[in-house]
Amino acid sequence: MNALELNAICKSFGSQRALDNVTLAVPTGSRTVIVGPSGSGKTTLLRMIAGFEFPDSGSLSLNGQILLDSTHEVPAHQRRIGYVPQDGALFPHMSVAANIGFGLATKGPARDERIAELMDSVALDANMATRWPHELSGGQQQRVALARALAQQPRLMLLDEPFSALDTGLRAAMRKMVARLLADAGVTAILVTHDQSEALSFADQLAVMRQGRLVQAGQPLELYQHPRDEQTALFLGEAVLMPAKIKDGWADCDLGPIAVNHQGNSEMAQIMLRPEQLQLNIASTGSPGCHGVVTERDFGGNTCTLTVTLLAGKFEPGRSLPVHCAGLLAPPIGSAVQLTTLGRAHVLNN
């Protein structure tokens, strides 16, 4: 069952088309991530769902209730949708407890108990209830904002790049905590981000937007392995792209024959491999296969990204390819290596 259904949403600001016929279904209890470059329309779409903006055409329903169509529009405060903005947007003149309890209908001890329960759920110490927002770290402010949104028992939670201002380690920890908290509460969530790794790790469903259009939606692994086009492939991570001739499920390319996920025949097509699909070994004299030389080495601790320049190539002799390997096992620059591939290459749409 779908919690949220968007149907043919369109929105223009003057002559600028912000959203172009966006249709998307968000399953109940799932985490959907909307990802795309700046200006792709993802934040506009989120504000449309929240009720802060209204489309020029299209419809939107939540748990079977029509929130917006050609005849009526339910205002934001009646939608029971939680919203956590990028900066948390805490009230600076209110304490942590007052921020979390803002909008709660209950009074007295019941209200205090509910605030304490919410603080505990987002891992905030009880002694922080009397602090002011400026006394909190960035991660603590985001947890207060999340608790405030959860206090309203929302049917849907919207997260607008809430981790972008946090440092790398805290960002990953907050992402895991929020995912676990939403799952425990059974709250359907939509996260907007431009961070590809964040999108892939957080999402049950990934929706890629570009120039106001929904380009592709599905499970993160499916989109990562089988992107619709070159732009989507490169946006979701590092990719090895090369021309090839396709025949009977095989690609003839600069790496030699590679199995592909396409049974048709094509005189020329473009195939994609992820760098982790390329495996290298130190080459011995006269060994068969595809050979190259390590020309660059980017050591990153547990992983290392190598640039391998091929010694031969059917379409582009001297092609350079990125290859990921374990940091401690990475060969030095100048090493002669042999390349093999794992799995199938993906044939991109023209």
UniProtKB/TrEMBL annotation:
Keywords: ATP-binding, Cell inner membrane, Cell membrane, Ion transport, Iron, Iron transport, Membrane, Nucleotide-binding, Translocase, Transport
Example of a GO MF term: ATP binding
Source species, domain of life: Bacteria
Pfam families noted in UniProt: ABC_tran
PROSITE patterns: ABC_TRANSPORTER_1 (PS00211), ABC_TRANSPORTER_2 (PS50893)
InterPro entries: AAA+_ATPase (IPR003593), ABC_SmlMolc_Importer (IPR050093), ABC_transporter-like_ATP-bd (IPR003439), ABC_transporter-like_CS (IPR017871), ABC_transpr_FbpC (IPR015853), P-loop_NTPase (IPR027417)
ABC transporter domain sequence ranges: 4-236
Coiled-coil intervals: none
Keyword Cell membrane: yes
PANTHER family (alphabetical): PUTRESCINE TRANSPORT ATP-BINDING PROTEIN POTG, SPERMIDINE/PUTRESCINE IMPORT ATP-BINDING PROTEIN POTA
Name of this protein: ABC transporter ATP-binding protein
Native species: Pseudomonas kulmbachensis
